[in-house]
Amino acid sequence: MLKAIGYDDEALSRPIIGVANTWIETMPCNYHLRDLAEHVKAGIRAAGGTPMEFNTVAISDGITMGTEGMKASLVSREVIADSIELVGRGHMFDAVIALAACDKTIPGCAMGLIRLDVPGFVLYGGSIAPGRFEGHDVTIQDVFEAVGPTPVA
Fold first, then answer.
1. How far apart are CA 9 and CA 95, in angstroms?
2. 66 DSSP 8-state letter
3. Cα–Cα distance between 54 and 67 in angstroms, integer?
4. Is the pLDDT of residue 142 over 90?
5. CB-based contacts of 61: which residues, under 8 Å, 6+ apart?
6. Cβ neighbour number for residue 36 with a 10 Å cutoff
7. How far is it between the farthest Cα atoms of the chain?
């Protein structure tokens, strides 16, 4: 089956390393993770392994905050863990590297790896790149400062 998508005997004779990716186009934390995955896969190949990338879900706390979507955030942590466990167990990876970059993807990835009990680690994708507004970089800190403190009732 794997030869149908380009793997040869040599690639399949090496350790198969799953690359769990929480990349998604709906949030800035995880948007760049596909680029990072290419570097991770190149490193796996250089070390003598065969990478196989797969995706899971991601929900943004920041984007869903104050909306009905907020109810999905905590649940997503379990779905991330479940999907990493499911794919890792189903495909019997020799190890898994999980790429994460936000509130729920980081613990979800860690939980999935713990359940699998194979060598692996969670790779944090780093801070969100700033946006641009009226010619200036704007970060989440700027947004929090603009909103100001929440009054205490």
1. 19
2. T
3. 29
4. no
5. 70, 73, 102, 103, 104
6. 19
7. 67
Distance of CA 41 to CAs 16, 24, 37, 97, Å?
Answer: 11, 18, 6, 10
- Residues ≥6 apart with Cβ < 8 Å to 106: 100, 122, 124
Distance CA 31, CA 98 (A): 15
**Phi, psi for residue 36 in degrees, rounded to 5:** -60, -40
Q: Read off the DSSP letter of residue 127.
A: S
Angstrom distance (rounded) from CA 114 to CA 120: 9
User: How far is the C-alpha of 55 from the C-alpha of 52, rounded, in Å?
Assistant: 10
pTM of the full structure: 0.85
99-116: average pLDDT: 94
Tens digit of each residue's pLDDT (9 = 90 or more) over 18-77? 999 999 999 888 999 999 999 999 999 999 999 999 999 999 887 888 889 889 988 999
* Helices of type H across the chain: 9-13, 33-46, 61-64, 70-90, 105-116, 140-147
